[in-house]
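Newbie here. two chains, one complex. Structure please?
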Amino acid sequence: MTDRDTFYEKLTGLIEPFNKKGVDISETTTFAGDLEWDSLTVMDFVAEVEDAFDIVISMNQQAEIENVGQLVDAVAKLVG
Amino acid sequence: MKMSANWLTLSPNWWVKPGFGTENMTDLFSKFDPLIAQREALLSTGITDPFSLVMQEVKSPTVAVCNGRETILLGTYNYMGMTFDDDVIAAGKKALDDFGAGTTGSRVLNGTFQGHKECEDALKEFYGMDHAMVFSTGYQANLGIISTIAGKGDYIILDIDSHASIYDGCAMGNAEIVAFRHNDVEALEKRLKRLPADAGKLVVLEGVYSMLGDVAPLKEMIRISKEHGAMVLVDEAHSMGFIGENGRGVAEEQGVMDDVDFIIGTFSKSVGTVGGFCVSNHPKFEVMRLVCRPYVFTASLPPSVVATSATSIRKLMHNGNKRAHLWENSKMLHKGLLDLGFKLGTETPQSAIIAVIMPDLERGAMMWEALLHEGLYVNLARPPATPAGMTLLRCSLCAEHSSEQVGEILGMFEAAGKKIGII
């Protein structure tokens, strides 16, 4: 398993408790469109991700992230 | 993750459908269709439009004729009732006579009159600070100061429930924006710890949050911010004049005034006029007058406004009795509404704002209308301005409300609440 796979697995695990609609998660799943998260859910989820990886995802960075694959890449870059 | 609610930049993927009935033109207004539909659905029930109220006559800080009916005002943030103060009005009339209707210029060119300096002197004295800068509105004060002092590579750490003017200041500047859960000291600390130690940091807090009327734990938050090398800006718009020993706000009440780098405030609440300001002890603060675009590239306040503001600010320094009465009003309304069975934004009265939580927008609008028919004006607040998607009836008390009026207000809430079936 590559590092990216590890991030993907950990992040999809973090998404699961917020996946109230039981959407099948893939790289291209979008947060606003497919998961239908509102701003509060996003905030709670981002806080979970930040705590899990001990990082900060600024709102500027969040604005660039639309789908799961982009989140994986962003987190991988932030963890460094 | 693209969201429209709090982060105010419109996402580039707001895909706009080709305009109907027009060729080769994309209707830029298509993005507002959901809001237009929501508004039409609400108004189609025959309800009074909550966002187009007109006050034909204003009789006092607490009574006006709204949509043709005499109405008690309980949603105007006129906390200290200074709008009709005799000295304030006299100062405004004199300034109109002596200096004219407007300045027709920027503060840095021809728009600084004697009155602007006197207004800034009154603020310096009120807050016991070295520098004061008056803006044309409170919105512009936040917009200007935040966007100017935090630049590229710096971080702004802010409460997720911050006012729109704070978010807009962030969006206008080039700093990295980091939000933390509302009033959560631990969440703030975690984020500060994770940011680069040598990066410039500005923590932005509010003394009183205007939606629920709750107070921030400034003492702990400011201590933690300072431990992590951050500068601190506190917006005290909703506390000036009645919170803290000298009415300087929540930071004063919690004993941390000396650790606040910038206080932002407004004249459009307790002061009873219009305008905004920033006060600071920073030794280089005056350079802001040259670099802060929302200060430079707009006309200054009219002479009458700075004169009424300065007079009001000086009077607010000595108003112990009025402050005490405002707190009595807040406590009486809070307890009365709880006793009637309403759900409130705070368990205890923490400020002069009492937020009544409505089950949804539709019943919130019905309740708002029922109160108006009873003769009471409150603010209807709804998402995205409100936290957690709530619909609120926001009540702001005035030191000029009599105890009898507060009693009347409770009677109106009881009648309207039963009519709508909320209590």
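Moderator note: The radius of gyration of chain B is 22 Å. The CA atoms of residues 357 and 392 of chain B lie 5 Å apart. Thread marked as resolved.
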